[in-house]
Prior knowledge:
Largest sheet: none
Structural class: mainly alpha
Amino acid sequence: MINFGAVLAVLFGIFFICIIAARLLDTGEGHADAAALARLEARIKPAGTVVTDPAVLVKAAAAAQAARPAMSGEEVYGKVCTGCHATGVMNAPKVGDKAVWGERLKTQGGVDGLVQKAISGLNAMPPRGGDGSLSDDEIKGAVEHMLKQTGL
């Protein structure tokens, strides 16, 4: 019977033969390929960053808003507001419901009051509808668009 030590010695011998063969076969070419390294860097770069400092978040939102052209009220509604205000999610007033929108106009201080509530957030609606990059004018345009669609 072959003992354990002999089997282990044979396995280590094969291991070292493989290491030596790999060293002899490696020419060192391909390691300095700039294009391959650039592709590798592009593949492993972070997908994004996490920012938790409120001051930095405000600056990032302002930079994002400045980097894109201003949107119309209809565009803002389609991008941000329609998810809740078209279906009434979490008691959001539906576009077209004159009674609810009319009441809100009275109790919130007119269009300017509604715009201020949209900017600061109300109940389940986050500030600026959840898109911090929207300007005050874009928010106002979206509120006016929803009121126009409602017939007010």
